[in-house]
From TrEMBL:
The keyword Chaperone does not apply. This is Molybdopterin dehydrogenase. Keywords: FAD, Flavoprotein. One of its GO terms (molecular function) is oxidoreductase activity. It comes from the Bacteria. Pfam families: CO_deh_flav_C, FAD_binding_5. InterPro entries: CO_DH_flav_C (IPR005107), CO_DH_flav_C_dom_sf (IPR036683), Diverse_Substr_Oxidored (IPR051312), FAD-bd_PCMH (IPR016166), FAD-bd_PCMH-like_sf (IPR036318), FAD-bd_PCMH_sub1 (IPR016167), FAD-bd_PCMH_sub2 (IPR016169), Mopterin_DH_FAD-bd (IPR002346).
Length: 343
């Protein structure tokens, strides 16, 4: 274990004053694991877990503003989230375990690191962990790696379920920092890799996520689902996942939202599919054709070509389940994708 300093921030200003080598500690479910693996080596931990005012979900101009310290478990059972953004609740419930969701926070979930096993193994080269060393995953085991937006600099995926649903709902990340406040759409918050590596970090030194804001989504609440394909029904990251929300009126899709998880270094918003679906009648053939447009540029980053097929099928399943309607009561653990169209 490497020695490190620990302090608890009482104000946002104290958290933003974090010096070089400092890391923000929220629930610790990702950061502490990475420290134990010797992947993260912070000289000091600034505990932000007690910052005031960031632990609640508030109304915001018809939408919701989620504080960065809202635990994943609280987010999934918040009545406003369940009623208006059910795919967010379903995405959170599909991740990790009950104990982890109690500790994990909204900001920490957004900022969690990739689950690339070469990143987690300090004996492997990794441009993300040590820029300029190369990518150990290239030519390796790439089951969890990208099929969209990757380069030979890095083929990792972002592992969050929550972020996929937030991106589908046009979520906005609110950031405070020494230079002031700024906002970034969830959809583009996580950088895509460049030729050399993982790309620039999403936050500058001293910056902190304070909230994620969800705009009003109206009728889409009645037709929204999150579907996740994984190796176990719980306690496993997505191989691929999809969040879908539809505004269906008189048998026609007025507007569609679709984002994929497990396919890229960020949640992948399927704009082409969304546009193609507008004005159509919901149906599997229509969904399949629309999703194909968004996967036209998908390419395997290794021996993971099957993920392209899986991503298409999971997206069509999410759209089909969304078209059937949001269930009155989301199950405590979302159903397996192998259980047909059962909610
Ligand atoms: C066994 C296991 C299974 C899991 N399965 C899933 C899964 O299926 N789906 C899924 O989505 N997730 C899964 N997770 C990941 C889990 O959701 C994350 O570990 C958790 O959300 C991180 O939140 P935290 O508050 O514990 O973050 P921490 O571990 O405290 O921090 C993580 C990172 O975020 C930074 N950070 C935290 N808060 C802020 C902030 N407000 N502003 C700026 N930076 C911040 C920290 O500095 C650190 O770099 C799993 C984790 C484990 C251990
Ligand atoms: S895919 Fe990215 S995170 Fe994984 S080893 Fe390559 S550079 Fe590192």
């Amino acid at each position: 274990m490497r020695p490190f300093d620990y302090s608890r921030a009482a104000t946002l200003e104290e958290a933003m004053a974090a010096g070089p080598g400092a890391a923000l500690l929220a629930g610790g479910t990702n950061l502490l694991d990475l420290m134990k693996l010797d992947v993260a080596r912070p000289a000091s931990l600034i505990d932000i877990g007690h910052l005031p005012g960031l632990d609640r979900v508030e109304e915001a101009e018809g939408g919701l503003r989620i504080g960065a310290l809202v635990p994943n478990a609280d987010l999934a059972r918040n009545t406003a989230v369940l009623a208006r953004y059910p795919a967010v609740a379903e995405a959170v419930l599909s991740g990790a375990s009950g104990q982890l969701r109690n500790a994990a926070t909204t900001g920490g979930n957004v900022m969690q690191e990739t689950r690339c096993s070469y990143f987690q193994d300090v004996l492997s080269p990794c441009n993300r962990r040590e820029p300029g060393t190369g990518c150990g995953a290239l030519g390796g085991v790439t089951r969890n790696h990208a099929i969209l937006g990757w380069t030979e600099g890095c083929i990792a995926t972002h592992p969050s379920d929550l972020c996929v649903a937030l991106a589908a709902y046009d979520g906005v990340v609110e950031i405070a920092g020494p230079g002031g406040r700024r906002e970034v759409p969830m959809e583009s918050f996580h950088p895509l890799p460049d030729a050399e590596g993982a790309g620039p970090p999403p936050l500058a030194r001293g910056e902190i996520i304070t909230h994620v804001r969800l705009p009003e989504c109206g009728a889409m609440a009645r037709h929204a689902r999150y579907v996740k394909l994984r190796e176990r029904t719980s306690f496993a990251f997505a191989i691929v996942s999809a969040a879908a929300a539809l505004d269906v009126r008189e048998g026609r899709i007025m507007a569609a939202r679709l984002a994929l998880g497990g396919v890229a270094a960020r949640p992948w918003r399927c704009r082409e599919a969304e546009e193609a679906l507008e004005g159509t009648a919901p149906g599997e053939d229509t969904f399949t054709a629309a999703v194909a447009l968004s996967l036209a540029n998908a390419a395997p980053s290794g021996d993971n070509a099957a993920k392209i097929v899986l991503a298409g099928r999971i997206a069509v399943l999410a759209l089909s389940r969304a078209a059937l309607g949001t269930p009155d009561r989301l199950p405590a653990l979302p159903a397996s994708v192998f259980e047909g169209d059962a909610p």
